[in-house]
Structure to design on (94 residues):
């Protein structure tokens, strides 16, 4: 799954792979999440919100590799001093 921690919300795209059999081609399918979570920059300001976002991701993402991306919203919050590097590192370790 790829988790997009955008400035407006957190959402995911999950991928599934089917091997080809009996001459059929392999397929890779993408599925956008129907849910949206709190923006990461907002969730990291409060332990309860961070926990809620982590629970949502744990409940809604299929098992397997998860790549998390965060750009503008988190970058702006760091620049304004609303988020600190240790907060980001703590989230990444979970």
């Amino acid at each position: 799954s790829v988790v997009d921690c955008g400035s407006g919300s957190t959402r995911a795209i999950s991928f599934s792979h089917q091997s080809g059999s009996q001459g059929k081609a392999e397929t890779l399918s993408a599925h956008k999440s129907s849910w949206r979570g709190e923006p990461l920059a907002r969730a990291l300001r409060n332990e309860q919100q961070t926990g809620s976002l982590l629970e949502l991701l744990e409940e809604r993402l299929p098992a397997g590799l998860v790549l998390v991306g965060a750009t503008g919203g988190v970058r702006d919050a760091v620049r304004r001093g609303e988020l600190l590097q240790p907060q980001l590192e703590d989230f990444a370790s979970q």
Q: What stands out?
A: The chain is about 35% helix and 25% strand. The first helix runs from residue 40 to 43.
